[in-house]
């Protein structure tokens, strides 16, 4: 295939029929749409091109910068398209979740604004969510930015309705089930919409990570905000795949089928097998099902090292806040706002740790508290206990669920600590004192 521009290689990806000896299914043909074989390595190549291609000339003549909210694959695809057109690119996100992707973005000269502690998916109740932040940046510099807005722009899902869906139908005919990870929900909406036109009985099943767990690229169960393209009613069902289930299925794709998939491909494969095995035996006619391998294994070696160090003969996973079980968190000491208020008043060496993001902390926090975004303190907890034994520590997070894990971990290591029930929201809504941070511009020495 001779091409003049790498973007001409985007799309027309293979559809792999999963060997029944691997799937264990008898009455269902299961297919994997290999979006990891796109030139930039993910399903986002299609919408990135669709969102930018018609705009590039205008963006260039007006010397604009493209700005987008993405923590990974969309940022990578857009940065590459912008770089090929000498257009600057700026990313706004909670955190570029995957070290390897951040290195690529830096290699391509993208400007990266990270706000740890924010939700990866724009939370409309949070005035500091990435979309609101982008609006503020654009309002402050009128005419300097182009924001394609992948979370709200129909061109995102349209790219999949015009290409990914038709390719699946052309290769394997009608589908009865579609399993798709939910990020912006552009791919599940686009592919689902097209395949539903071909088979109105199609069941589209959305796949997310459980609450408190994180699979780069898709939402967690506590991030189901109905923003932009995402509409819950579009889905027959929304199911969860844990990090472990996703990694186990990812390893089957790699080792048994030679498909260099990322974790969300594993998550969808795991969800598909769990769902389809529960109905396979009772079927009286053959059915077809498809899931999407969204990106590549190579991006996730550091992710796998963190979650499965034994795969790389690294030492057993260090104990950290991340290894605290749900039961241990449930048993953690926690106080109501009123109790915490009294506990703080009686405490000598009190330390109040606010686990939220820096933007949320700046906007309002418990007077005298210290901001340690959860991800940072999770990393720190792998190296030891950053509190001395005479400290009394109150942990605060947005709603009081995350902070319990920290209280459980440090309590078990001899620190007198508690979690605030209901989190900062309960404190604020309880009419308790809060203060804003006033950050002075750094004065030159
Ligand atoms: C690895 C990965 N899987 C799944 C998705 C979900 O795709 P969508 O945004 O179309 O819902 C994304 C989105 O960025 C992704 O990067």
Features:
445 residues, alpha/beta, Rossmann fold, Oxidized Rhodanese, domain 1, five-stranded parallel beta sheet, globular, binds pyridoxal-5'-phosphate
Task: Summarize the structure in words.
With about 450 residues, the protein is α/β, with parallel strands linked by helices. It has helices at about 20-25, 45-50, 55-60, 75-85, 100-105, 130-140, 155-170, 185-200, 245-255, 265-280, 300-305, 325-330, 335-345, 360-365, 375-380, 400-410, 425-430, and strands at about 15, 30-35, 65-70, 90-95, 110-115, 145, 175-180, 205-210, 235-240, 285-295, 335, 350-355, 370, 390-395, 415-420. The chain has a 6-stranded mixed beta sheet with strand order 1-2-10-7-8-9, with helices on both faces. Helix 2 (about 45-50) packs across helix 4, helix 7 crosses helix 8 and helix 9 (about 245-255) packs across helix 10 (about 265-280). The longest helix has 19 residues, at about 155-170. The chain is globular, with a radius of gyration of 23 Å. Bound molecules: pyridoxal-5'-phosphate. Pyridoxal-5'-phosphate binds near residues 43, 184 and 188.
CATH class of the largest domain reads Alpha Beta
Low-pLDDT sequence parts? none
Average pLDDT across residues?
Answer: 91
From the coordinates shown, what is the CATH architecture of the largest domain? 3-Layer(aba) Sandwich
CATH topology-level name of the largest domain: Rossmann fold
Oligomer: single chain
The rounded Rg comes to 23 Å
Q: What molecules are bound to this protein?
A: pyridoxal-5'-phosphate
Query: What fraction, in percent, of the residue positions are helical?
Result: 25-40%
Number of strands: 15
**How big a fraction of the residues is strand?**
15-25%
Helix tally? Answer: 17
Shape: globular
Kindly report how far apart the N and C termini lie.
Answer: 59 Å
The largest pleated sheet is described as: 6 strands, mixed
Q: Structural class of the secondary elements?
A: alpha/beta
Strand order of the largest sheet: 1-2-10-7-8-9
Q: Tell me the domain tally.
A: 3
